[in-house]
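Design job #97: recover the sequence.
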């Protein structure tokens, strides 16, 4: 819920700020009634899932919530941010929100393992959004240019890889061990990489 609320504000805001300096084209839709309905539907679906993790009623709430969040993401013009990885990673992290709703909705009627959707939310949305915001905030608050270095792009790729591998490990039990190994290694690379790349900046005086 925090990612849908806070991420639902910062993703279109940062996207709009960057796109305003680019050529004319689609801009992110501002927060409006559709967003309110989407967040509310997601909250109701989550409450239903907590109360009754399985059953058609839970699925009937989770799947539409996933579709609404997917449409919400599409309204933010993420396809125009491919050249700016600092913005693109925000969209990729948020994409795990609808994925989680849809997978968990399918798990409620035993079509997929229950862990798949949970890992989409935790490893993908929470892990990805946390890393995306930490890197961007560190650059901005230490007076550095808002640009994703090669190293930053590596840790972004690592967090996405970790999340996808962990989801696939739930979906493909026969290949669980190698997928868990990839997921764990990629997760470590992402966050140890953040410490190595951004630790010095956080421990140094702000650039003028």
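Job complete. Output follows.
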């Amino acid at each position: 819920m925090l990612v849908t609320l806070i991420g639902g504000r910062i993703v279109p805001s940062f996207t709009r700020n960057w796109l305003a300096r680019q050529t004319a084209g689609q801009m992110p839709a501002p927060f409006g009634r559709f967003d309110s309905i989407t967040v509310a539907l997601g909250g109701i679906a989550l409450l239903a899932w907590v109360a009754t993790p399985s059953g058609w009623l839970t699925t009937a709430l989770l799947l539409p919530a996933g579709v609404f969040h997917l449409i919400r993401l599409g309204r933010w013009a993420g396809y125009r941010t491919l050249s700016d990885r600092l913005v693109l990673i925000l969209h990729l992290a948020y994409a795990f929100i609808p994925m989680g709703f849809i997978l968990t909705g399918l798990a409620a009627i035993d079509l997929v393992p229950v862990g798949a959707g949970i890992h989409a939310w935790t490893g993908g949305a929470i892990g990805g959004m946390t890393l995306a915001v930490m890197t961007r905030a560190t650059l901005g608050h230490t007076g550095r240019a808002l640009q994703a270095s090669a190293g930053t792009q590596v840790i972004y790729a690592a967090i996405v890889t970790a999340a996808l591998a962990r989801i696939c490990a739930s979906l493909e039990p026969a290949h669980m061990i190698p997928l868990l190994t990839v997921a764990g290694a990629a997760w470590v690379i992402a966050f140890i990489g953040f410490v190595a790349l951004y630790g010095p900046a956080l421990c140094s005086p702000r650039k003028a």
